[in-house]
Amino acid sequence: MKKDMKPKEIVTLRRSLLHDTEKLLNQQIEMEGQSSAYYLSMASWCHMMGYANAAQYLYTHADEERMHMLKIFHYINEAGGHSIQPEITGIRQHFNSLREIFELILEHEIKVTKSINAIVDHSFGVKDFATFSFMQWYVTEQREEETLARRALELFEIIGEEGIGLWTIDMELGKLHDSTKA
Ligand code: OFO
Asked: Where does Fe cation 1 bind (predicted)?
């Protein structure tokens, strides 16, 4: 070890988190932060439109996405890397319908699943079993998130949007979150 090395340089030499892995994890932080902002914006639109249960569902979902982001944040720093606070801009603020919101959520969650799978695949490939194991929580979470989005969309098919349909869908959306946590 060179005499003139600073303490931080010594510590980073001893870490097992590869730079490629750190980069992928930081990209995932950004994606989770985007999910949180996206769902908060959707919650606001639903609230403004009078879809009270959908709004509550989405406010809660936005908080959960922030928690997903923070878990990775702590993981990188604890593994000797540097978590980067993402810059999040360009979040859509207006939507055409309640149904469109849930279609967008499903589309978005499928993208997130692909991104999580890419990290799992990478960490296995480089034999980073700590990251591989850490990411298993996200694998399970994504399955749940996609199921929730699909169930929400099914409500539109089953109930229909005519008459008191949208009101009923909003009521059912209020129960959806609890049903998957059972
Ligand atoms: Fe973080 O699970 Fe959705 O995006």
From this structure: 32, 65, 68, 109
Residue 163 lies in a domain: yes
Counts of helices then strands in the chain (DSSP H, E): 6, 0
Domains of the chain: total: 1
Residue 49 domain-assigned?
Answer: yes
CATH code of 17's domain = 1.20.1260.10
Query: To test ligand 1's pocket by mutation, which of 35, 38, 143 has the most ligand atoms within 8 angstroms of CB?
Result: 35
User: How many other C-beta atoms are found inside a 10 Å radius of the C-beta of residue 85?
Assistant: 11
Q: Is residue 2 part of a domain?
A: no
| pTM for this entry | 0.88
CA 109–ligand 1 middle distance (angstroms): 6
Q: What is the per-residue pLDDT across 101-133, written as a single tens digit (0 to 9) for each?
A: 999 999 999 999 999 999 999 999 999 999 999
pLDDT in tens, 28-70: 999 999 999 999 999 999 999 999 999 999 999 999 999 999 9
Expressed as residue numbers, the domain containing 25 is 7-181
